[in-house]
Write a structure and sequence with these properties.
It is a single chain. With 438 residues, the protein is an alpha/beta fold. It has a single domain, classed as TIM Barrel (Alpha-Beta Barrel). 30% of the residues lie in helices and 23% in strands. Strands 1, 2, 3, 4, 5, 14, 15, 16 and 17 form a 9-stranded mixed beta sheet that branches. An 8-stranded parallel beta sheet has the order 6-7-8-9-10-11-12-13. Strand 16 and strand 17 form a beta hairpin. Helix 4 crosses helix 7, helix 7 packs parallel to helix 8 and helix 8 packs parallel to helix 11.
Length: 438
Amino acid sequence: MSEFDLVLKNATVFLPSGRENTDIGIKEDKIVFIGDIGDSNNSLDCTNLFIFPGLIDTQCHFREPGGEHKETIQTGTMSAALGGITGIFEMPNTNPLTTTPEALEHKIRRGVDTAYTDFAFYFGGTHENSSNLPEWEKLPGVCGIKIFMGSSTGNLLSATDEEVEAVVANGRRVIAVHAEDEFIMNENKKTILKDSNDVGMHCKWRNVESALNATRRVVTLGKKHNRHIHVLHITTADEMDFLRDNKDTATVEVLPNHLTMHAPECYEELGTLAQQNPPIREKEHQDALWRAIDDGTVDIVASDHAPHTLEEKSGIYPGTPSGTPGVQTLLPVMLDHAANGKLSYERIVDLMAYGPKKVHKIKNKCAIREGYDADFTVVDPNLIHKITNEEQASKSGWTPYNSKEVKGYPVMTIIRGKVVMKDGELLERQAKPIEFQI
């Protein structure tokens, strides 16, 4: 009997202390040895490959229950595993909303039964359930509380300060916020968008003011109640300037779409396929997001995987739904940015492993350490790959990056020592709720 169940050999391993060319020994789902290992019957040669800790996509919408024609937990996590992602956090704006223990338990059962990666779920915070949140936020499988200050897909809206404060004042765990001001946007829709059917107007009426005002409001309430606010999908230079000065209260997420595409070109090229909330904005804002990546203001990069069918997206704006698929392309797009010198590979690990671990207090994952779960994202940094609609496992069947050529691609997804994906093929399921230090 071998000393190890699996040995990963000859890779460039991304350890907390830095890169090291070494081997990893795995036994009973855990990392048990890091260092030179001799010959082994159960080894995978990883020469010329990078081994990252298992990467987490902390913002996904898998539409189950209620929108299974767009996505399910199964197809969404298939996409995740194909994209090198070992764990996902899924959002509560399903139907029914994930605002009760019963709704949460249904999702957890579906995850255990059907998922291809590990998972956790955001619990939806509302004025109605706020008094229960100190208890319910501690339920197994909960990664945090989520509130929507501006309307997006679903009916989970907390628009007023009274509604937001009811959630912020109840509980201790991180609150993730979709920060767009509903009142400003409603007025802008009447005075700026008017009767236009031009999707290029999406970033005009859902404007900088609506984003900045909502972010300021929720951070102010976070300070008042000493509550950790995690502001999702930041899109504006103005918000980044504000958040840079408020890191004592707020952590920050950005998306690859906002780092990669910009207005007006994205709307001219993709039409409503580029429509998402908050919107993709002009290049000056994109440049500010990259500066915030560089200076450490940004804590997490996630996909905000939000699939809709091509039929739904092909309607007349603004009657078309906002959102794009992204969990399968999250890492490839970021690897391509690294290959082009926009950020280091170490920063990718920081934004997709160490950042999620810090913000959400994930237990025994997101770092290559002895005793931790044997979760790894294995990458070929030199592999050239053309992203296509046809290879997407998402039920939606499309990606805004169709035909984009990227340098760097995930070649293995390993979860608790089991190879779930290898060279673009799904081999087996590995699915458990992610645990947190509460």
